[in-house]
Amino acid sequence: MKDLVILRTPFMIQKFDGIDDFIKTIFPDIESYLKKASSSNIQRPDLDTIAYSELERKFKVFIVQNYLDNLNEYLRKQAKHTSREAMKDVLLSTISTTLSVRDANNNQLSADDYLISLRNTINKIDL
User: From CA 79, how far away is CA 56, in angstroms rounded?
Assistant: First the structure.
């Protein structure tokens, strides 16, 4: 998939040049991660699913590191009668690579979209 992908949350929108760009932005050290996982006796066919799990984890970190101010401002406006921390936890739990990232036609990306891209990355690097 080479088309534009868009990360949409209630508190920010960010565009990427494609799923590969999205993955590299969220998980910049993916190649070293894959090499390390491969050297840990993880079988090559399993690398994509392991890398996808790590991508999802790093996605939450990316959101918090880069958009914490946006998130806090959104919560300040929206959470007038509820706990901001509770609302933050709920909101962050609903943001995911499959629910929050869409292609240019507004179709949600699926885990398979990421797995294909991850397999292509695995095939490009020397493990």
Answer: 26
The pLDDT score that the predictor gives to residue 95 is 92
* Residue entry with tokens 């007038």: 80
Here the tokens at position 69 are 């101010």
> How far is 47 from 79, CA to CA, in rounded Å?
40
The pLDDT averaged over each successive group of 10 residues in the chain (127 residues) is 85 96 96 91 88 95 95 89 87 91 93 94 86
Directed axis angle between helix 111-124 and helix 30-39, to 10°?
70
Contact 19, 27 (CB under 8 A): no
Contact 25, 15 (CB under 8 A): no
Q: Exposure pattern of 29-48 as b/e (b: 16+ CB <10 Å)?
A: ebbebbeebbeeebeeeebb
